[in-house]
DNA sequence: CGGTAGGGATAGGGTTCT
DNA sequence: TAGAACCCTATCCCTACC
């Protein structure tokens, strides 16, 4: 019969994350065509990439797609839930040789569930985006309740201070010193 | 909390086997939607069907799922093992009113473990399939050692002679006079 | 037609119950 | 302890919509 099920290797996963970081989400065919990632992902289709990204993303934030749907169904309460912090999927790690200078404040891990939402919002926009875009993304996708805004705002400021995010003219982007990894 | 464990009735089991014979394995939602079987199986989900089929199939071939895993772990040796013949699950019985003429050679039971693998291979392909497909299925799923090929080949020829299998243009299918039953 | 998004189905590992 | 029934979720498939 067909293939018995092709499990993703961590190499493939890393390539996918790097591809999303470079081209943005929803650019699956573009990522596949990029020789930087296409070679690693040559046995995957654009749809495979989409599915895997959905799985990675939703797993990091909710633990599973099923739980994500349940969370969506509930009253707009627990957007990012508490037991999501001990996942490793959508995390960001420092690259060996970054071009910029060291941050004034050292980063102290680990990343929180708020961080992960912020990363997803920024990554998804593909361009440096302002605070309002980040909020809109979060509200559109996670039905976060109002009193959850403060911790997110605090993390946004913190991540900027430690150099994980770079803020230019009120717009945020992820530092090139960091990239998604397993 | 949930349901107290709903044991499968033999009616349900028969319906499942007939459904697999008609639609092939892996078509659980289709089987459920087929009014011919859906009414009997109305308290079962597609996943239930899949799980039950796994139990039936693997039990017939190995005695249990655990033994099946062990068999897989061993060196590609004992694909179908010896103590599988005294099971009743994946057997085939003659239907009362078959459309075709009686076979030149009467069938003498019982079915062997080789037969069961052949049935599974053909059933799984959903279409009449040639000898090569059957071998590929067997090798993919049971890691049969080469010197086991002969008994399977002999049974394939025998089952064709007695009319359990029908061979057309080098392709085999199960006779409509026969169906899986408990 | 090719591509993406999203819902939904399947495969296979794991867990619970008996 | 084994086996049957059931759960979990990564992967894969289908369809609507550009």
UniProtKB/TrEMBL annotation, chains A, B:
Residues 1-61 form the HTH myb-type domain. Residues 5-57 form the Myb-like domain. It is found in: Chromosome; Nucleus, Nucleolus. This is MYB transcription factor.
């Amino acid at each position: 019969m067909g293939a018995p099920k092709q499990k993703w290797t961590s190499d493939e996963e890393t390539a996918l994350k790097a591809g999303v970081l470079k081209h943005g989400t929803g650019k699956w065919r573009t990522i596949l065509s990029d020789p930087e990632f296409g070679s690693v992902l040559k046995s995957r289709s654009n749809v495979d990439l989409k599915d895997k990204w959905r799985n990675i993303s939703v797993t990091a934030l909710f633990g599973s797609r099923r739980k994500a749907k349940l969370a969506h169904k509930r009253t707009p309460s627990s957007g990012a839930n508490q037991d999501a912090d001990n996942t490793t999927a959508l995390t960001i790690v420092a690259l060996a040789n970054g071009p910029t200078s060291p941050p004034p404040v050292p980063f102290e891990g680990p990343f929180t569930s708020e961080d992960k939402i912020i990363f997803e919002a920024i990554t998804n926009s593909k361009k440096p985006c302002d605070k309002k875009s980040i909020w809109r993304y979060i509200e559109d996708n996670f039905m976060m309740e109002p009193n959850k805004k403060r911790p997110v705002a605090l993390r946004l400021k913190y991540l900027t201070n430690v150099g994980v995010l770079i803020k230019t003219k009120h717009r945020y982007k992820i530092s090139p010193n960091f990239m998604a990894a397993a």
